[in-house]
Amino acid sequence: MGGCDQSRIDDSSLAVCFRRPIAGETVSTHGTLQAICRTDTDFCSMVSQKGLIDYFPGRASKFIPDQKGSLDLIKDKASKLLVCIGAAAGTALWRTIWVFTSNAAFDGLNRPTWMPPSWLYVPIWTFLYIMLALILYRMWRHAQTKDMGTSFRILGIFWLLHLITPIYFYRASLDRVVVLLFSQWIALTILAIRLHKPFSSRVWLLLPLWLWIGYMNSICIAMVFLNP
């Protein structure tokens, strides 16, 4: 764009060079970014690190040249996806072990009428863990081009709370389970808000888990009152 001197770049000139076009301008901001990124990788990396990638929602990351070959890129994506699936599968196994051992503790408790049958939990949680693996994968893939540190910490808090919850199910400590489930629901809400801007088309991956945890918490709250 006019007035953009790459030899003397600072925060203010970056904002000038890569701002949204105003009325009457015919230049293509996206095209300029694309041209510079093809010839000056370091400069484009600096733009990304400074967060000015937000001036180009959903597009700027595509213009950053990948130094890996296509085969290496495929391997990198596949390995990240497998790690995410493995993390979700490990969490599912951990939860399954605790849930099956806690069945005896719940047999004598009164339950609300809207509690689903036990056979329904396996397919629902399988689907939810797939969604969780996909959102983790999306976050990991874009960790180098977007400020994802806080989002990863929020997801980590959710994951930790999720791992702790089955222990209190086993002990039939319903009041603590309610607190843990509500904390998970809050963490997912904050995470969805933070991810809305970089992943507006992918935030829906969190919606099923968000709804299910809220639903499960309503069951636990009802059981607290039904079993004083």
Describe this structure in words.
The protein has 228 residues and is mainly α. The protein has two domains: 6-63, no CATH class; 70-226, Ferritin (Up-down Bundle), CATH 1.20.1260. 67% of the residues lie in helices and 0% in strands. The chain is elongated. Mean pLDDT is 73; it is low at 1-40 and 49-68.
Describe this protein with a few key phrases.
mainly alpha; 9 helices; Ferritin; 2 domains; elongated; disordered N terminus; 228 residues
Give a short synopsis of this structure.
The chain is mostly helical. The longest helix has 37 residues.
Topology, number of strands: 0
**Within the CATH hierarchy, at the fold level, what is the topology of the largest domain?**
Ferritin
Question: Based on the structure given, which CATH architecture of the largest domain is correct?
Answer: Up-down Bundle
Distance between the termini: 69 Å
Q: What is the total domain count?
A: 2
The main β sheet shows up as: none
What is the H/E string?
HHHHHHHHH
Q: Class by helix and strand content? A: mainly alpha
Strand content: under 5%
Low-confidence stretches: 1-40, 49-68
Described by the principal axes of the CA atoms, the overall outline is elongated
Q: What's the level 1 CATH class of the largest domain?
A: Mainly Alpha
Mean pLDDT comes to 73
- Residues in helix, %: 55-70%
The gyration radius over C-alpha positions equals 23 Å
Number of helices: 9
Which secondary structure elements does this structure contain, and how are they paired or packed?
Blueprint lengths: L10 H7 L11 H11 L1 H9 L10 H4 L6 H37 L14 H21 L7 H22 L3 H22 L11 H20 L2
Helix pairs in contact: 2-3, 5-6, 5-7, 7-8, 8-9
